[in-house]
Amino acid sequence: MTIVVGNLGTPEGHAAFDAAVTEAERRKAPLVVVAGPGEPGRDVGELTERLHTAGVEVRLDPGTGDLADDLVRIALETGAELLVIGLRRRSPVGKLILGSGAQRILIEAPCPVLAVKV
């Protein structure tokens, strides 16, 4: 069983990444980090060493450019036990509409989804 997370350079992406690392360490589960489109995410070099020291495997996946599809696909392929995403706070009107990527992940994910709010 694995934990899957995207690596985005946004505040939501950073929060999801940190939560996924914590869960991987706590569960001693392999972590699959999927590259997000556009701007670079966290540098995983130092993190990889930290996780290896904690006994956690890390795999990097370049993705295809559609992060929602990539996360769901990789969760299916790896038999993930958890998929971690980040969400930003929304206005009262914005709460009626969840981001399309997040909505697709929540609906299509083959495993529990941990949504981390920023």
Would you mind describing this structure in some detail?
The chain is of the alpha/beta class. The protein has a single domain, classed as Rossmann fold (3-Layer(aba) Sandwich). The protein has 4 helices and 5 strands. It has a 5-stranded parallel beta sheet with strand order 3-2-1-4-5, sandwiched between helices. Helix 3 (67-78) runs parallel beside helix 4 (100-108). It is globular. The mean pLDDT is 86. Belongs to the universal stress protein A family. InterPro entries: Rossmann-like_a/b/a_fold, Universal_stress_UspA, UspA.
**Number of helical regions:** 4
Strand content: 15-25%
Number of strands: 5
CATH topology: Rossmann fold
**DSSP helix fraction:** 40-55%
Question: Which homologous superfamily in CATH is the superfamily?
Answer: HUPs
CATH architectural designation: 3-Layer(aba) Sandwich
Overall structural domain count: 1
Summarize this structure as a short list of keywords or feature phrases.
alpha/beta; Rossmann fold; five-stranded parallel β-sheet; 4 helices; 21% strand; globular; UspA; Rossmann-like_a/b/a_fold; Universal_stress_UspA
